[in-house]
Amino acid sequence: MSGVTARNITKKYENQQVIHGIDLDIQEGEFCVFVGPSGCGKSTLLRMIAGLEETTGGKLLIGGTDVTHADPAERGVSMVFQTYALYPHMTVEENMGFGLKMNKVPKADIDAKVAEASRILKLDEYLKRKPKALSGGQRQRVAIGRAIVRGPEVFLFDEPLSNLDAELRVDMRVEIARLHKEIGATMIYVTHDQVEAMTLADKIVVLRGGNIEQVGPPLDLYDNPDNKFVAGFIGSPSMNFMQGAVADGGVRVAALGDRLIPTNVNLPAPGNKVIVGIRPQQLALISAEGPLTIDIAEELGGVAYTYLDAPNGERLIVEVRGKSQARSGSKTDVDFDPDSAFFFDAETEQRLR
Ligand code: ADP
Fold first, then answer.
1. 210 alpha carbon to ligand 1 midpoint, in Å?
2. What is the pLDDT at residue 98?
3. Which of 113, 131, 188, 209 stands the most exposed, by the fewest C-beta atoms within 10 Å?
4. CA–CA dist 121, 104 (Å, integer)
């Protein structure tokens, strides 16, 4: 097994720079997820690690060896794509063994490796079928099997679950987590879905515009975001953000009827603007009439998301356990622990601590 190290990695397509000097250490056996909005550079970074994109600048090491300009086949990596890329005329077992066959691996060895991958992925009863007779989830398992039989040091996954429906995505997510437990290889996984990132990762790398915004274990990013972008991206529904004005001893929030949130964080001088963030799970609706107006409540059964309009035009979401009991159009107020509020610089959007 091998770790992966990136040192000041850059990528330019013609004149456009899309990766701006990434430094990253992925440990041996770690499950690392690259997450971020569309176009942030996560696939490009993964494809540079795979050797499918030339690296413009910087250095890339796999297992301590410099592979910056090595052929994909020499890197000890296997990639699983969003679009499965199976051969339609081959059976499941032929698809899984094809790469080894091309490399002239003896048939007995191929059979043993395919049998092992099939056991891990529970594909035994499908080995003689062709891809068209498989569901999307089964096809993706075959694509993962094809990566496993090559015995890579590092598995690379490029949005592997995006083509599956919601229920299958959850099943496959659990399977991939189990696979990582069982084979313990280093895995790097690209997704735009922060729930996949939170549930699968040992380490999340949040990317935006070709830069790393923050790296850390999922709950560190959730509990301790470095900036407004990470705070808003990690967690569902997204964190509520409101304009605040620094006052003596805390921050006044217009959306909450100029309520003062007391805090000990290092704030700029009174009168300056800051951004206040509170997660929907930290807000409670209270029955007293207040400055907020209930817009709608989305009832999901176990929880409800209640959308509130503030007098200054800002909107808040409150997560309510059970049924919301909210009546559209009625006035309400919220309660929260002041220590659950985050504060961000209004200009740089960096966290104030
Ligand atoms: P993500 O995977 O996060 O959606 P990508 O890595 O695919 O993002 O793309 C990052 C940026 O690089 C985007 O702005 C995209 O338009 C650009 N890009 C990707 N591939 C090419 C290419 N072959 N030529 C030019 N620009 C590209």
1. 10
2. 96
3. 209
4. 24
CA-based radius of gyration for the chain: 24
Q: From the CA of 11, give the closest atom in ligand 1.
A: 12
Q: Which residues line ligand 1 (CB under 6 A)?
A: 13, 18, 36, 38-44
- Provide mean pLDDT across the span 251-258: 97
Percent pLDDT > 90 in the chain is 92
Domains of the chain by residue range: 4-233, 240-345
pLDDT number for residue 326: 83
Give the burial string for 64-86 (b: 16+ CB within 10 Å, else e): eeebbeeeeeebbbbbbebebeb
Indicate yes or no: pTM above 0.85: yes
Beta pairing class for 186-191 and 31-35 = parallel
Closest-CA residue, ligand 1 atom 5, reads 41
Which residue, by CA, sits nearest to atom 27 of ligand 1? 13
Task: Look at residue 117 in the predicted model and tell me its pLDDT.
Answer: 94
How far apart CA 259 and CA 271 sit, in angstroms, is: 15
What is the CA(39)–ligand 1 centre distance, in A? 6
**Fold topology of 4-233:** Rossmann fold (3.40.50)
Is the CB of residue 10 less than 8 Å from the CB of residue 54? no
